[in-house]
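A sample follows:
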Amino acid sequence: MWQELCGVVPKLAPDYAATIVNRAWRDVRRQNLWSFLMFESNWTSPNIINAGTVATTQGVNTIVFNSVAATAINAQALGPPTPITQRQFRIGVGTIYNIWQWDNATMTATLDRNYQEASSTAASYQIFQCYYPSPIPDFWAWLDVRDIVNFNDLVYTRPRSYFDERDPQRLIGTFPSHVAGYQTDLNPASNTYKSMMFELALGVPQYQLTWQLAMLRKGTDFVNDGDELPPAIGEDCIMAKSRAYAYEWAAANQGDNPRDQGPDYRFLIQNANAEYTRLYREYRRQDREVVDNFLTKRKTRWTWASAWGYYNSLSGSASPGAAW
């Protein structure tokens, strides 16, 4: 597309043309919901590890496990379902630390910060997972986080302060009922480095439990010449908006000499934007049925239980729902 843009506007640099095309592509992705921005994945919680003991030193970010604990950790070190370096560590009701590295040879784990509680030589501990990285780096928003086994849709509209009021020590050990943003993955050695992380709260599972995730993604820019648009949006729509940006550049770079004057770019900008609006609406209308079907079939925790009937053969439970 950038080659075409260079032919439309003389003297437009190829690198800048590629930038303009990506800018137009981002406009399309941001302005509405699209089927190609919907994504499904899963989280699976690991079994809790608490065999053996650990030695800690206050002010040091490494902890040393005994041989029994090391054997248990090695059995799950690489997963499945998740590697040790995506899990958390704590002693008793102390601070929850992220595990950043595991050294089998020395039976030593490196934490994300210095251990702040009192030193210990043979303490009981827990390795579990309450923070989960986004399955995609361009995460935008949740559509659903669903525990299918326990017919439970997690609430994702509350802040972490809500958890702090109800479970400040994070001691509830049943099914999580909420999910909220935590922070980006700050572990440079992680394969999800800089991806958004989320906390499962008001219940931390101590065994394997899977959640089905439905989310919106931001989408990615074009990088290679061979990158293609998804079927739901046409190249003509992207090019119309790209031309508007290119004409703006051309208008800003017209010379003062009358001989350097070209066409009146104001009208070209107006026409390009009008064409973009028309094409955008047409493609959005064609894609809307897919999007609406996806969204109307999903209800958050607070709506389905009160309004929609359900039946679950696994649990043997059912409800007719509430009257409207």
Remarks:
- The longest strand covers residues 139-147.
- The first helix runs from residue 2 to 8.
- Confidence is low (pLDDT under 50) at residues 298-315, 320-324.
